[in-house]
User: Fold this.
Amino acid sequence: MPEEKTVFRIEKPDWNTSPLTGVTRQHWKDAALYLLQGAFSYIHSIEDPMKFPKQPGKSYPRKPGIDRTELLEGLCRTLFIAVPLLKEDPSLTVNNIKVADYYRYHISQLLDSNSTAYIRPRGSITWPTQTLVEFGALAVSLSVIPEVLWEPLPQQQKDLLAQTMISYGDGPTVGSNWKFFNIFVLSFFKDKGYPVNEKLLKEYIDKSLAHYRGNGWYNDAPAYDYYSMWAFQMYGPIWAELYGKKYFPREAEIFESNFRELKSSYPYLFSRNGEMIMWGRSMSYRFGSAIPFPLMGLVKDTGVNYGWMRRIASGVMLQFLQNPEFLEDNVPTLGFYGAYEPAVQPYSCRGSVYWMGKLFLGLLVPESSPFWTAKENEGAWGTELKEGNIYHKFQDSSNILITDYPNIGASEIRAWCHVKAIKANEPFRASENYNRLSYNSAFPWQSDSAEGVVAMNYIFLNKDKFWEPWRLYNFKKFDKGIYYRDAELETNPAVRFNLADLPLPNGILRIDRNISSDSVNMVLGHYALPQLKGNITETTRKLKQYEIKIIDNGVYQLAMIPLQGWQKTVVQKAEGIHPVSRISKVINVTAIAAPAAENPAIYATLMLWKKSGQRWTDEELMPVKKIEIAKDKKSVKLVMRDGATHSVEY
Assistant:
């Protein structure tokens, strides 16, 4: 068993260039080498495949023996990390293995029918496969360092590789970011003089551009998530730079234009410390989410604060590399920090995690670029985002709401989710990866695995006596600081709510309207806290007629106050369902409600937070002075203690 490493250390931090992290371009190279060394700890001779210990659970391979796709993933995805290092040092040696020789040898094994890694040409396969994904990745690497990976190959191998890879590129794909895999395969070999399907290439380019929804966001058919960034907003500008400007200048210009729009919203999705939010599928790709920030160094844009972009990118990298749970057996876990099965999808194997290596393609940005030379700064967090206030970035085409909370330096997102889970081909699209009411950088999501316990969602006891969460949301509007959605229960459309989220400087005020025609037994949960510094403490306070539950884990405090409609408040302890620690706690409010279609019922709830060690004032715990519900229940007027008023209009 390879020796397990601890965490990545920053040697000789540069506090002048990077006063917040100490991280420079050299440290990015060090981080890439750190991860590559972990992968190569399994390579003792050039023949050894890039294969890692399987993590127990739903990830593949699910049968003993050799899985060619697993080997292909390990090869092509670790190559993302090796590429920028090889570009600067083609003689790079890791674990006494010449890295360039290793990857060229294993590329040749893909073409050898006697090899366990052999990939046969697509032939009569009429559906897209994971092989296409990995060949797309390989095409990116071939495109970036052809002098290392392509040119030294014998002509016979070049021709065989072209035949095999083109057979997949010139074929079916998935109506999502997958089209880029075809695009890169066809573009690379077109550039090398091989005949390719030009019509299909242009079709996939146009269809990829059609996914754009504005404000830097692409839709990944059907969801919004980080694939917009580690796929569309990475492949798009890189393809434009390598091939688009040469062969498809109009399309390249559109990709670059879409990329420039990122700066107005995406940086605000990261916390003050540069932490990413746990949100969406493929969470094990982690800091690959930050690749658009260094790529801004390829596009001349005077509106970019490069010091802030580097601060975010370095911060999100350190968020994981300096977490002691990140590596197990020298390899990143499938999870968020440590291994976390609820966030794993069955299409992943252990080597899938190296998709995060896309971030290191940022090293291809010249050393002289302002992305590397600008002085690191906090950007909007140090200027426009002031404590005591709340700030929104609403994306009016994707209906994404990004909210920043300067009081705790956290970011939050509300985004699309409307996928059924029952009998679904991909039930993870309806899971906690997407179905939470909101996602916050300070509070990673907890799964619903414990009976009757929920974090940042509603659950309902359905007809099968199973606790079922909201997953079918319909966005209505974002108006005057309030985010409106309707929701209905998948197993019973008679259970329906109008939802209204009003973010506050220290939390969220929910004013939700039950319009169900059936009775409901329901639970609403706050964010969950992991146990970190001793036991999570619980406190109960009385404020007028309200009972307030507070939990504190030594880093944050969470408070929940039922203002209207709820019958009981409880603190729920759970084990094994939080991504940060084995023990966690969450505050839940509960109610059993009569049918409300004819007489809608209002459920008002305060979900508040503060940093640990800070005292709660009565004004902070009760920012609402008065709730006035219209007789027809179609609107609610909120009078706040600070004199502000809000009108909720369903």
Q: What stands out?
A: Residues 68-88 form the longest helix (21 residues).
